């Protein structure tokens, strides 16, 4: 049998080579031909494509992402940790023999087409759900630094502006309207100017969120050729107002399209430029056009319909309106539904409404802010109370989520929601709905469009307001914990452990 | 490659009881030889690597390692412990401890010697010879003979 293998580890000076040596020894000992590519620090010599083409099976003994994985597309794969390969090389070879046999016993003509699922982890196929979850979690792990750093900068800017300017500090966001002018007048001695600078940088980072999420989801699916079509989908989701759910879908389609294009048989003269030029070019065009054209129009329709609907509701039960606004705020965090609710509140918050004490308008604003604070706070709470249910990366972003939630930066919950949408989103919707209903019931009013606890001074009846936020937070956290405990497969736990290891892969 | 290890980088009676102490002891040997200029930075880097995933391997070896700015040239310090030091391997403590230090950043060519060393470590004969070695000179000889850059 002919085996090719890739070994790699975080530092790239020890385990990579030990695993290579162990696999070579065990492979030859069992009478196979084996070639190993060591992706370590001493420079990797890529495997000869001809050797890869002839191989019956591929072994990945890697604790970090295998570089240029697409070279092995279509081959049966055995993936193990690098330590497992060192300690139990002979077993890994046996697994490889089995994987190769299974691949050949499957219909031979189908085998070429069946390359849609190139990676069989330890010869046991992962379920589709788990595979998708794996893609999402890769995207999320790259997203987290942007959410945390950007969100905390924005929160700090609110805090500093509050100190510098008092209750009107929330107006700090206006610096973003004309950044060059602001920078022109920047004074290192002014606290307010520092707050403005932080806001600009934080808002700048938030501008990347959709692109990073979509880009790295696509990367998880199709490796490097997926990056360009993924990023463009995230960007498109941003400008079309599709939010992170749009980015998530665009990332998946981008990755799958890139993967599909890479499977097209081409003359060997073109093969060399496929991953660098052809795949990104073709996949980006298709995916970008898909996102803009297919998603754009329905979204515009959703915007108008939802806005009309909300306006028609204003006359009826105000508590019901609060519940609906809560549901909407938590549904897609920055996506179309959230934006309709938020815009509905902000457009009601006119100078006149503030001056004339228009109770409904001010209550709607209070509701929307409270409901928007709940998702990050709830996930911060859940990941503090039951850390075992969350991956290492999620626990870390849970710490930042306290600050983000308190500052009404709903995006703090995106990493959690993007990684596990079906369990997280319903939970936070329920929590925000409760908070929204309670705020309306208590009749709290708010005279600022954002700022979280930094504008609590502008909230009418803040003790009951805090109670409403706390109640929704506890409910949402409890639901998240419940859903994550009740429906959790072994696959998933393994996946999270793997993701934890992968997080350190950049060393 | 004569200078991957020297007799001053060998401790055949490693007295340390835990991995932090063992790693520190070997790092101090490197520091005394001028191979590690910033001991604390290097130890921090080794600990960070160790925290990702323990470096103990089955068969009684521990290979704490790091690329660090505090390192001047690829170096290994070797310690042998009769009682064993726990490096987190599933089958018990390590009797052979290899602290591997690599300079941070570019010039990957010279790291090949470490790759060659790592490859030797999986061979039972190499481990056995190290367990039997009577003195530091024998250890250094063994490295020179066996660790060959291909």
Query: How large is the share of residues in beta strands of chain A?
Result: under 5%
CATH class of the domain at 2-125 in chain A: Alpha Beta
> Class of chain B in CATH?
Alpha Beta
Q: Roughly what is the average pLDDT of chain A, rounded to an integer?
A: 85
The general outline of chain B is globular
Please report the two chains with the greatest interface, counting residues with C-beta closer than 8 angstroms to the partner's C-beta: A-B, 24 and 27 residues
Distance between the termini of chain B: 11 Å
Strand arrangement within the widest β-sheet of chain A reads: 2-1-3-4
> What do we call the CATH topology of chain B?
Mannitol-specific EII, Chain A
Major sheet of chain A, described briefly? 4 strands, parallel
Largest sheet of chain B, if any? 6 strands, mixed
Q: Which geometry of chain A do the CA atoms define?
A: elongated
Span between termini of chain A: 34 Å
Number of helices of chain B: 5
Backbone CA Rg of chain B:
14 Å
CATH topology (fold) name of the domain at 2-125 in chain A: Rossmann fold
Helix/strand/pairing category of chain B: alpha/beta
Structural overview:
The complex is a heterodimer of chains A (507) and B (150). Chain A is elongated. In chain A, helix 1 links the parallel strand 1 (2-8) and strand 2 (33-38). Helices cover 68% and strands 5% of the residues of chain A. In chain A, strands 2-1-3-4 form a 4-stranded parallel beta sheet. With 507 residues, chain A is mainly alpha-helical. Chain A has helices at residues 15-29, 49-54, 82-87, 89-105, 108-113, 128-165, 179-184, 191-206, 209-222, 227-239, 243-263, 268-271, 274-313, 318-332, 336-348, 351-355, 359-385, 392-406, 414-419, 421-442, 462-486, 490-503, and strands at 2-8, 33-38, 57-62, 77-80. Chain A has 22 helices and 4 strands. Chain A has a domain at 2-125: Response regulator (Rossmann fold). With 150 residues, chain B is of the alpha/beta class. Chain B has a single domain (2-146), classed as Mannitol-specific EII, Chain A (3-Layer(aba) Sandwich). Helix content of chain B is 39%, strand content 21%. Chain B has 5 helices and 6 strands; from the N terminus they run βααβββββααα. In chain B, helix 1 packs antiparallel against helix 2 (39-52). The N and C termini of chain B lie close together (11 Å). At the A-B interface, helix 1 and helix 3 of A face strand 4 and helix 3 of B.
